[in-house]
Amino acid sequence: MVDDYNSRSQQLFQKDLELRAQYGVRGFPAVFFVNGASNQILVYGSKPYENYEAAIRELAPSAEKKQAPAGGDLFDRYPTLTTKEYSVITSVSIQEAEHILTALEQKGAYEVTYIPRKVLRGTIACSRRADS
What we know:
With about 130 residues, the chain is of the alpha+beta class. It has helices at about 1-5, 10-25, 50-60, 85-90, 95-105, 115-120, and strands at about 30-35, 40-45, 80, 110-115, 125-130. A hairpin with a 5-residue loop joins strand 1 and strand 2. Helix 4 packs across helix 5 (about 95-105).
């Protein structure tokens, strides 16, 4: 630990603090959206999906939101999804997302992991089985 303290880590940490001040970062995570005209929007902290979408719409008003594929096809793009992620991406309720993900598991090609409520608000994570 002393070696870490005496190494370049202090310098690198100081550089991180300077960058934070330069860019106005006040929370974690911090996501910068920048368009071709170098206009930027900073979204910091744990924010709802709609905040990120609003930043994109503001910087790229002509951008069109595409509807995500439903069911198992979504896992061709995202290897693992939680209930909330599936709900937001597919524009269905949390309850409907849980029903769909559970049905995918029952088909046998997907694996569902139940995450305890105290860890992540009682959600499930679903992924395609490695052997399918």
